[in-house]
From TrEMBL:
Pfam families: HemN_C, Radical_SAM. Residues 49-282 form the Radical SAM core domain. Its cofactor is [4Fe-4S] cluster. It catalyses: coproporphyrinogen III + 2 S-adenosyl-L-methionine = protoporphyrinogen IX + 2 5'-deoxyadenosine + 2 L-methionine + 2 CO2. This is Coproporphyrinogen-III oxidase. The keyword NADP does not apply. Its EC number is 1.3.98.3.
Amino acid sequence: MPSPTTLWNQAMIDRYDLAGPRYTSYPTAPHFAEGFPASEVQAAIARSNASQRPLSLYFHIPFCDTICFYCGCNKIVTANKGRAEPYIDLLHRELALRARQFDRARPVRQLHWGGGTPTFLSAPQMRTLMRLTGEYFSLLGDDSGDYSIEVHPGRMAPDTLGVLREIGFNRLSMGVQDFDPRVQRAVNRFNSVEQVSELCQRARREGFRSLSMDLIYGLPHQNPDTMAATLEQVIALEPDRLSLFNYAHMPHLFKSQRHIDAGALPPPADKLAMVHHAIDRLQAAGYQHIGMDHFARPGDSLALAQARGEMQRNFQGYTTHGDCDLLAFGLSAISAIDNVYLQNHKDMVRYAQSLAVDGEPACKGLALSADDRLRRAVIGQLICHFHLDYAAFERDFGIDFKRYFATALASLRPLARDGLLRLDSGGITVSAGGRLLIRRICMAFDAYLGSQEPARYSRIL
């Protein structure tokens, strides 16, 4: 069935809009521990190979030639293009390492290059990295996989799209953020409507089957009128998917944000007005509100996967390939192998040294307990599908759901009284007015949240 309409309930947003995880993983990354045993990694890889699940590959390309002040990603800002070549050599080493550990027959259903700005690489370097990937892993040669790349539309020549399509990419994600010139100057990120339009047209001619755009609300000098204008320009470009992210100003965590004038940030009421208008306008334009900050056209594979009950969530966000084991390569990249999470070193020197000395680039990890796996499944079901059936979990996990989660369900009763969800004898159903607060609902099932934990996270809206 199609995704229901999301309804705005200002009173409930005022009551429940707090900080919390985005749940691209459970447990979340702050709970990964250093000194993770190599034996745990090897055992997880053995279970992964025995399962014969397909693979998803992620490559973190950290380089940017200019700095976007709002960015909280792990990045290296440099104009020196020569830094890319030794990094590809490091990725080559990591590819060779993982290829020795994983069954080559397992197909790569999903592949993603993120960053940073992956198109910082030259065309020959991009061809080399994809060729090496194909030498070590079983890439699909029939264009049936979801192979995507993030691009900065203001820093990429249209001809680059031909190279990307040639080497196998069929999905394109553009970080538009905002078209207003004053906002762009304030965050040092520039891309005009004309540039993005040209890239969209060229991408469609090249045969990319999905175009996605990212917008950010809450940036300096934004207001409801400027954001509405950007949104109309984006809708006219007809992306297949659209993400609308909340800017979280945390200069104590992200140095680049210290360049932003906090006095120019829009007040909370304006931020809420922006997202309220955007949700209503996008739904009126025919987009389905997939969940949280993601929208898709009804015929997009993500919307279809949600309608079939197959959409899942992982470190790349909502996905149609949650059944894959995720192998992540490069600086700070996070893998999900069977019931183990692994994160690579965030520092380039340590990342390089680890590959040279012991061949293992991961510095942190976490083995999920039975309780972790159960709670991950509960949170994933709610955040993707807004409904949970007790009987299904009792069958799959051998528990009495209402007894096991008695504390969590008790904490949800006030939200049920406020109409954000329905608790009945058979399960949980999130209402149209509760969908915007799904992160708050999922937090009831999070066993790791402590009194200080929300300070690490952005607000829900």
